[in-house]
Amino acid sequence: MSSGPTQSPGLIPTGRIDGKILLIRGQKVLLDRDLSGLYGVETRALNQAVRRNAERFPEDFMFSLTRDEITRISQIVISSDLKFSNNVNAYTEQGVAMLSSVLRSSRAVQVNIEIMRAFVRLRQMIATNADLARKLDALERKYDAQFKIVFDAIRELMTPPVAAKKAKSDFTPESPRFAAVRLAR
User: Fold this and answer.
1) Cβ–Cβ < 8 Å for 114, 97
2) How far apart are CA 103 and CA 116, in angstroms?
3) How many angstroms separate the CA atoms of 74 and 77, rounded?
4) In 3-state terms, what secondary structure has residue 13?
5) For the residues of 52-109, what is the DSSP string, one character each?
6) What pLDDT is recorded for position 31?
7) φ and ψ of 86, to 5 deg
8) Does 74 score more than 90 pLDDT?
């Protein structure tokens, strides 16, 4: 069994799709450039097909990035031509699903299936991480009290003891007993 990314016959590795999903405006999206590469069409052709079917792509399916968003993304995305682009579209999971009906090719359908699987994996990973974080918090709460006792004991052992007050002795050089002992010698 292989531990690398899976691949459907004739399609792209799923790891390649996973790595292209970005979080923009609080939504998981794929950029038009990445989608066109996956579908095997030019970005211009993909955007043209979307413009011809604009009613199928409301704002929650597809949105254009602002100049500031493009600049920020171009700093983390390897694509060097991104920062020079005037118009970059981001497609949400629903927008990607709608693309298969607009592009109408068997490759588009197969690529969409792989992309949908990537979105599902991402959701599962996020849910698993959230569940793990909850369990870790519960463990911390459960063991905090026990560890507090241990740490308090260690701190107590590390603290130097307070010098006990010596009882005042009446046997001082000024005392008559001291003088009597000195004379007796």
Assistant:
1) no
2) 16
3) 5
4) strand
5) HTGGG--TTTEEEPPHHHHHHHHHHS--GGGGG-S--EEE-HHHHHHHHHHH--HHHH
6) 92
7) -85, -35
8) no
